[in-house]
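To close the section, here is one more complete example, presented without commentary so you can practise reading it yourself. The ligand is magnesium ion.
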Amino acid sequence: MNPTVYLVIPCYNEEEALPETVRRLTAKLDSMRAQGLANEHSRMLLVDDGSKDKTWQLITQLNQENPYVEGVKLAHNRGHQNALLCGLMAAMESCDCAISLDADLQDDVDALDGFVKKYLEGCDVVYGVRNKRETDTWFKRTTAEGFYKVMKLLGVDVVFNHADYRLMSRRALEGLSEYKEVNLFLRGMVPLIGYRSDYVYYDRHERIAGESKYPLKKMISLALDGISSFSVKPLKLISNFGILVSVLSVLGLLYALVSYFMGWAVSGWTAIVCSIWLLGGLQMLCLGVVGGYIGKIYSEVKARPRYRVEEHLRKDNGSK
Ligand code: UDP
Ligand code: MG
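Output:
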């Protein structure tokens, strides 16, 4: 049976891009239906993230004219990640799988067929991965790629060059709904859900209209959220640094004592230098220990699901 596919699209001040986006996605859904990749209940769900322009009026109008278009309006601007999660959760009840994409169609819509094909082969999560980033500026490309590398170094499981263009099956969405954290970084959360996943590669285009709604400030805040919500390694670094300084302080101590006995040091210098180094190291070590506990509290507070059962094979042995 053809699946019910929901295209979930967060929109913030996208009045310039929306009409064209909806036109292209309507054609795409038509062609997917013709190929047996989507059924007649498939929809595009436009989430208005508290836009200040005419985005919501447009969505209301499109909803009346176009049988595919559904809309959700957030009461205020909560940012891309929240708007996207809202859309995915709204789609969860009605869809077999949901694909998230941006309103500016920078992500190639022709990749959509590939997503659904992988879903039909049994994948629960399909990640869209950018082939090349030629259309991004040098600055955006370098910072973005650097960010993925730092995340890997910090031990966070993120897919390289994957933004939020991805398909999730209904049960993967149900898995996602169990994550109650408030600081969202969906790219890091989805791999935690598990299940079979695969990749689809695509080229990234220019924005079809309007300008980026992700200024540097929002990019940095997303990156910091990604790091602080997924890694306690920075806390461990403090401990390690504390140990290093303590070790160095012993060397400093030796040097200060030698200076003292050789008569190089002025009176009082040795005691001050020794105490600064030793106390500095110990303080940092103690901070690291406290940090270790804070890290534990942090992961407890997030109350992430501890496991998810994918299959359970039983044998009926007659007992109840
Ligand atoms: N977006 C949103 N809320 C925001 C900022 C952006 O819903 O506060 C949406 C935006 O409408 C677009 C997607 O997130 O559909 C990605 O934004 P954009 O294309 O501006 O980011 P870029 O591609 O420049 O990184
Ligand atoms: Mg964009």
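Once you have examined the tokens, check your reading against these statements. Residues 235 and 319 are 50 Å apart (CA to CA). The chain is about 50% helix and 10% strand.
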